[in-house]
Design a protein that fits this description.
heterodimer, A: about 110 residues, mainly beta, 6-stranded mixed β-sheet, 4-stranded antiparallel β-sheet, 12 strands, B: about 110 residues, about 0% helix, about 50% strand
Chain lengths: ~110, ~110
């Protein structure tokens, strides 16, 4: 079965610091990859997604992620975080043709200190 | 434009009871997925409904069942509740054509089993 690992449970950064959140998945075939974010008191919402093509994907609010097939990774990055980026971030994978099952990682809580 | 709505917001039940949770999809969407999110975990896929039928199911027992109505709204039913069923239950809706279409999440129903 597909599994998704997020390396960090809780990350604390100061404003303007750079961010990289790790995500690795186990499925060796074709995958579709997502990062979702949940701001305090709000619904899960999509940050960015990768289906095919350029492995560097840009999302909302200055976030980007890079798909590295050889490493089974899809790490999320932002060059300079803001206090408003404080949230929980989830990596998710759709694996295999005809699969509708999104498999999520356990999430990484990001706290940004002003 | 109404997003995904869920009811009730919170629910308290005792072991052995049955519960029904409800979801209305985002306007224009006709596919509904249900997820269980235990404390400190990422969402886990329960099943997806399309055209009033269960299209795919995750690794959940038969105590978890669902239904989709002609207006695309959906119900999640859980029988013989266990303490371990305590969780946030999320509903997500999407367009049907491609599995990798963005899933829009609702606020969830917090179920507590005593």
């Amino acid at each position: 079965a597909q599994s998704v690992s997020q390396h960090n449970h809780h990350v604390i950064l100061s404003e303007a610091a750079s961010l990289e959140l790790g995500c690795n998945y186990s499925y060796g075939g074709t995958v579709n990859l997502f990062w979702y974010v949940q701001y305090p008191g709000q619904h899960l919402q999509l940050l960015l997604k990768y289906f095919s093509g350029d492995p560097l994907v840009k999302g909302i609010k200055g976030f980007e992620a890079e798909f590295i097939k050889s490493k089974f990774s899809f790490n999320l990055r932002k060059p300079s975080v803001q206090w408003s980026d404080t949230a929980e971030y989830f990596c998710a994978v759709l694996s295999g043709a005809g699969s509708y099952q999104l498999t999520f990682g356990k999430g990484t809580k990001l706290s940004v200190i002003p | 434009d109404a997003g995904v709505t869920q009811s009730p917001t919170h629910l308290i039940k005792t072991r052995g009871q049955q519960v029904t949770l409800r979801c209305s999809p985002k306007s224009g969407h006709d596919t509904v997925s249900w997820y269980q999110q235990a404390l400190g975990q990422g969402p886990q896929f329960i099943f997806q409904y399309y055209e009033e039928e269960e299209r795919q199911r995750g690794n959940f027992p038969d105590r978890f069942s669902g239904h989709q109505f002609p207006n695309y709204s959906s119900e999640l039913n859980v029988n013989a509740l266990l303490l371990g069923d305590s969780a946030l239950y999320l509903c997500a809706s999407s367009l049907p054509r491609e599995a990798y279409n963005e899933q829009f999440f609702g606020p969830g129903t917090r179920l507590t089993v005593l």
